[in-house]
Amino acid sequence: MPRLFAAVLLAAGLGVAAPASQAADKLTDPQIAHIAYTAGAIDIKAAQLALNTSKNKDVLDFANNMVADHAAVNDKALALVKKLGVTPEDNDVSKSLVKNADAEQAKLAKLTGAEFDKAYAANELAYHTAVNAALKDTLIPLAANAELKDLLAQGLQIFLGHQQHAAMVVDMLK
Prior knowledge:
Elements: H1 2-14, H2 29-53, H3 57-84, H4 92-109, H5 113-142, H6 146-172
């Protein structure tokens, strides 16, 4: 999922892949908001799987942090789109994200114990690396609305911390 997420966002940003046919310069704020919200919802779903599967305290702490932080950012995003009177728009990128996340979730759901913990942590590290790059290099620069741009930038700061935390968990599980 992480590599596919990055590839989909890169393709959307560069307009080079058929499945993600929208060029980045054609992504609208409602589409950008939906992509960001979808990415957060995907991470919440993965964290909930970890909370139901793992017995490792470090993994559980990380997963609890993912649920709390991503839910808080998504709540702020929903409040912002409501304030602006904007309806987030599903698009090729967000649809691809969900499809790829569902496939990754199915793989993770088959794992248990240390095997699950390692796969979940590695996925989280790769996912946050891809999401952070997409936010920094594509979504924030393309956002036209200053409040949306600011919310995405605030989220990026939180998610950079997640990336560091995920790297620590990966190292602990080696």
